[in-house]
Design brief:
The chain is α/β, with parallel strands linked by helices. The chain is 37% helix and 14% strand. The chain contains twelve helices and 13 strands. The chain binds zinc ion.
Length: 360
């Protein structure tokens, strides 16, 4: 669709990828209308900048598109509602956060009072863990609630200072419902060397994480630190934090913790293999394609679904800089519903298919 200014109307897109902007450019568009919540991949953004094509979020371009956007990604925030803190939904999520905290501690992903967990419960309300409490000792009573600017709006304990990191992710990724930050030793070993783990080695890692990025070091707890992840989180569900730890986002706290487990086990396995004195063997491209088919069935995103960006993906692999973009749709792609009840069955089918693939 275009008007006299040759605008391409892509407001129905959740994600604007390279292929979309190339098509719009080929059609002669000088401006692309997108929803305010639309996630624009870095390569698409670069492409638009290079060609001086204007990106017009809906409602900002002109008066003809002024539908209000209640999304948390919008610059205009709804007033926070402290009453959300005690709703049945919040109570259920608090229990999930406590369970995830115990898992993190028992797997030695956190130490002292390290690590933190949050969950976006409303457009401007985020439940989070308090400062100075071990993740093993979490109870629903000690949890806090903040607004998207980090102001505490409920809870008696003081919220974690690292909530700013979580909030930057929620502001950047509309699909992110929960964030888990922790310090798993093997993944952190990569984070302190500035290396990202290679791909095409272990199927489960390809399916659930696929690619990780690494963000630069800044002092933890500061806004400057929180903002280091902004360039990566739209396209990576898992990011290594230089000289610090990792952060993962997903549609639930349980799933975000899964990604931490998958990354940690992967890094651990790679480090063990590196001591054996023989090279690691890689999964073939065909076998990787089989895994990506499984990943599609799970509803998980992956840059490699987009063949137009394969070259970019392969280049980044060679450079080992992790500059890979994932379409940031979490697990089942939902943005407000509870998790897919069939997820367990899907995970089982993935595991079976992965075993079959390995047996080839
Ligand atoms: Zn930390």
């Amino acid at each position: 669709m275009s008007n006299e200014e040759k605008s391409a109307d892509l407001r129905s897109r959740k994600v604007l990828a390279m292929r979309d902007v190339q098509e719009a450019a080929a059609a002669g568009a000088s401006r692309i209308l997108v929803a305010e919540t639309c996630v624009v991949t870095p390569s698409a953004r670069d492409f638009l900048e290079q060609r001086s094509i204007e990106l017009a979020p809906c409602g900002c371009a002109d008066s003809s598109h002024s539908a209000p956007d209640p999304s948390p990604a919008s610059n205009v925030r709804a007033p926070s509602n402290p009453r959300l803190f005690s709703t049945p939904e919040a109570e259920a999520i608090k229990k999930e956060i406590c369970a995830v905290g115990k898992k993190l501690w028992m797997r030695q992903f956190v130490d002292g009072n390290g690590g933190n967990i949050s969950y976006r419960i409303g457009p401007n309300e985020v439940l989070c863990t308090p400062t100075l409490v071990s993740k093993y000792d979490l109870t629903p009573e000690v949890l806090c609630m903040v607004d998207l600017e980090g102001n505490q709006i409920a809870g008696t304990k003081q919220r974690t200072s690292e909530i700013l990191l979580h909030l930057e992710i929620y502001k950047s990724v509309p699909e992110a419902k929960s964030v888990v930050h922790c310090h798993p030793p093997h993944a952190t070993a990569y984070a302190i060397t500035g290396k990202v783990p290679p791909n095409m080695i272990i199927p489960e890692f390809e399916v659930f994480v696929g690619k990780v990025a690494i963000s630069p070091y800044k002092t933890p707890g500061t806004l400057e630190f929180a903002q280091t992840v902004i360039p990566y989180v739209r396209e990576h569900n898992t990011v290594l934090l230089s000289n610090h730890g990792i952060v993962c986002w997903a549609d639930t706290a349980t799933h975000a913790e899964w990604y931490a487990e998958v990354l940690e086990t992967y890094c651990w396995t790679l480090l063990l293999a590196s001591q054996l004195g023989v090279p690691v063997s890689y999964i073939s491209e065909q076998q990787t394609s089989d895994l990506l088919e499984i990943k599609k069935k799970l509803g998980l995103p992956d840059i490699r679904f987009d063949t137009s960006r394969m070259k970019e993906c392969q280049l980044a692999d060679v450079e080992g800089n992790g500059a890979i973009a994932l379409d940031p749709t979490p697990c089942d792609g939902n943005t407000g519903k509870s998790a897919d009840p069939d997820l367990d069955a899907l995970v089982r089918s993935v595991t079976e298919a992965v075993m079959e693939t390995l047996g080839k």
